[in-house]
Amino acid sequence: YLDQQEGRISEIAVVVVDTASARCLASVSLSRSGAKDVDLTRRPRSTGSVIKPLLYAAAFDSGISSPQSILDDSPAAWPGYIPANYDQEFRGRMTASEALAQSRNIPALRILQRVGVARAAGVCGALGLRTLSQTPQRYGLSLAVGGAEAAPFEIAEAFASLARGGRHRGLSLCSDTVDQDPGGSHFAAALSERAC
């Protein structure tokens, strides 16, 4: 695959998870640079838009928004920050579900502003993003659009938690791993709890 993407993609990290059991079924790390000893699935990278579902989950959980809430995808500005959407266009009013499905930046930034960066970062951490170690002020609203870093392994863990309705379980790598938290822990519970 990397050979087919010459000049476009130089590294790939893939993590395959059974969401019900929280078992990592496979992980692949490929690099054109020849860094064979570097596991890219464990190396933090910019989250880009991949963090948006976690931010919406925080908003839905706290009652600030719901999938059918109407959000505004129109020009917005904050002190020192004038964001845009990837396609440089605005789509106007849309549901939160539509905004998330289309990965619109402006609605995600507005959701994050309402949720609060500290709460959103706490939810992300509780779902499995352990590399979010900076203060909320360091991230600011950029948390919604790639201003943080997380490893693909952590992202897979967080998305598996979402698939279980927000119940976090740390990923296990082998079949004989003892499950220390068979029921999982909902992200609204203690944020520091980890299953592995």
What does this structure look like?
The chain is α+β, with helices and mostly antiparallel strands and 196 residues long. Helix content is 28%, strand content 17%. The chain is built from six helices and eight strands, in the order βββαββααααβαββ. It has helices at 52-62, 96-101, 105-115, 117-127, 136-139, 152-163; strands at 11-18, 23-31, 45-46, 70-73, 92-95, 149-150, 167-168, 185-186. The strands form four sheets. A two-stranded antiparallel sheet has the order 1-2. A two-stranded antiparallel sheet has the order 3-6. A hairpin with a 4-residue loop joins β1 (11-18) and β2. Residues 175-196 have low confidence and may be disordered.
Question: How do you describe this structure in short?
Answer:
The protein has helices spanning 52-62, 96-101, 105-115, 117-127, 136-139, 152-163, and strands spanning 11-18, 23-31, 45-46, 70-73, 92-95, 149-150, 167-168, 185-186. The protein has 196 residues and is an alpha+beta fold.
The structure class reads alpha+beta
The main sheet comes to: 2 strands, antiparallel
Show unreliable segments.
175-196
Write down the overall geometry: globular
Number of helices: 6
Helix content: 25-40%
Distance between the termini: 33 Å
- Compute the gyration radius: what is it? 18 Å
Strand order of the largest sheet: 1-2
**Beta-strand fraction estimate:** 15-25%
Mean pLDDT comes to 84
**Care to count the β-strands?**
8
The secondary-structure element order is: EEEHEEHHHHEHEE
